[in-house]
Amino acid sequence: MVRLLKKTPLNEVHRELGARMMDFAGWDLPVWYTSILEEHRTVRSGAGIFDVSDMGRVWITGRKAGGFLDRLFTRPPTRLEIGSAQLCLLCLEDGGILDDLLAYRVETDRFLIVWNAANIEQKLGWLKRWAGSDPDIVIQDESADTVMLAVQGPAISRLRGLKSLSHLPRFGVAQTRIDDVEVLAARTGYTGEDGFEIIGDATNAVRLWESFMKQRVKPCGLGARDSLRLEAGMLLYGQDMDMSTNPFEAGLGWLVELNDGDFIGKSALVEIKRQGVRRKLIGFQMTGQGIARTGYMIVKAGKEVGKVTSGGYSPTLDVSIGFGYVPVELATTGTDIEIMIRSKPVAAQVVSRQFYKRGARNDPKGIQVHTGA
Amino acid sequence: MTPKEYRYTQEHEWICTEFRNKGRVGLADYAQSQLGDIVFLDLPAPGTQVEHGKKMGEVESVKAVSDIFAPVSGRVLEINQTVVDEPGLVNKDPYGAGWLVRLELSKPAELDALMDSEKYDKFVAQLSEEESA
User: Is the ipTM of this complex over 0.90?
Assistant: First the structure.
């Protein structure tokens, strides 16, 4: 039987623009419109727009909503001021990561969570299981009735509709109107650039999209979404972390608040932290020729020591970069490793995971790139 | 679009021969459009013997990696160093500046088994149809 892909409210628009489409976590989404490189560079130098409606948008409301989320997330959302957001992890009892997400506090008892497209049913089930039948905790998945756009790049604050939000700090969230459409806009993103993520009614999807297209904001697909986040050192759930990884080995310990109240997974995480991790997620850069791709083997002295969890070409640095888990003794910056590229070991080096930093000089960090065969 | 004087493989390589025993090889427009932005090429060194239908190199785009097959058997005379340094030329000018290697053919008769431009255009049209179906 053919599996039907889910379509965002902008599916027709993407097709009319001639986008190349692909199946991403069950969604029919554009990989690129004209070129991944062009789209990537536009976001680094101008402004690009992404349809990120595949992300799940769930409202948690009610008198006990905040306390409920404090018990589920690795950082308490009740510490948030109204109109701000934070990154959090949702962990299982054993400390394994169920998802990474953004928690927004829109009003005292109204929280919005935005999480990944994968395993939505499982995650919703997890929330509902812990909420039980408490009438003071209302869980409402509004993903299907809304559209979500990410407008990203250094030029975005000059755009009509976003100019009025220039005061909004990073991770700030506000209700506003764009082209007379009521939206929720947050200064967040997944590209390493300044940007907004905008949620509106699905019925207004085309109008919102067009208001940015009219200002010549470039439509960007999943290809650039992936290369931008990789350069910026951001992890992708399902690849760089999953239920079998804990936050400390993923380098996400900063998202875990162990000195506050109790939450699911806390006791396991306290113990993991006490014992120390055996492996760590590293960033690496190829020094030999070739492109490291997701799933390739990482080797040291002829022995497999890990796998590339995300890998690809960095348009900004013009080298191949990636992430992967290796034993802690190999996780130090500057360590030489090799990546098996179609049964040939090719030289690479462990580097800081943040390959690209906004406003910094971004070139391969003094590493000599071998040229020639 | 597809140059009339070239010959094509089902794997979307082309060959343009000079005097029937030498020829330039490249990737057809369909291949580059499917791969997207090409960022790396691994080509056989001059002197390498390549064999009809066998892998002779690799092409990597931002999104994917793909093998390059030899359209005919022969010896590599030279590689296009310009395209190695600037792989995006394959996207910009697949039938011209984006050529990959020049071969000396050891079995010129193999050319007869390749598609001419008319046949190849039909082949691609059919693929595109299947894709959109």
Answer: no
